[in-house]
Amino acid sequence: MTFITAAVLAAATLVGIAILARTALSAWNGWLDLQRTQLARPADGTHHALGMIDLSDIKERLRKLEAIAAGVDL
Fold first, then answer.
1. Does 24 share its domain with 53?
2. d(CA 7, CA 15)
């Protein structure tokens, strides 16, 4: 094996390792972003706006039940 062949083989190997390292780093950063978004969501898996809608729905149902209990005709 000549010096030129060995140098080309070494350069190709180095480029291959660099590509693999870059791909692994990109995958790692993507995984970390996924974990951050999962931690930012509420524990029950619903979006914050959906939770607010559910809360207003519960309040409306409570008002209706209080009106029924008070004998007011809706």
1. no
2. 12
